[in-house]
Write a structure and sequence with these properties.
Number of helices: 6
Largest sheet: none
Shape: flat
Distance between the termini: 81 Å
Oligomer: single chain
Bound molecules: zinc ion
Helix content: 40-55%
Length: 147
Amino acid sequence: MKENTQGCPRIDALSALIDEALAAEAAAEIRTHAATCPLCGAALADLHRVRTAFARMPMPVLGRDLAAEIGRRIDAARPAAARPRGRVRWGWTAAPVAAGGALALSFGVLLGSLLVAGGSVATPRAGLEAFATVPPGGICLAPACLR
Ligand SMILES: [Zn+2]
């Protein structure tokens, strides 16, 4: 049984007892506790009164299918272009995704083949010497580099 810090069952356990959703052992444990605990006894009595009051309420009967009516109103409020036309047509909308996927796959195969072949990936050198960390890079501030 789930309990709070005072050793009382949680309200969801009391509610489950009222709904007859607990196993017999757990239900008996809660009933035993509620018989001696004024807080849980009162909560259980309140839940029982609520359940009884709901059970006495008349079941409303609608004269029509409300879901179909709501669906018709949603369709009427939606612009014609946004209305579903049956099955989904991918057409050219999937072309950029497919092209991107093919490009990424090709690039992966290229890099993988370079690694498997033992080759190294050539890095472009033009214009990057200024950012090199090892002299003769242009950013070296060591006295030897400043001469
Ligand atoms: Zn209690």
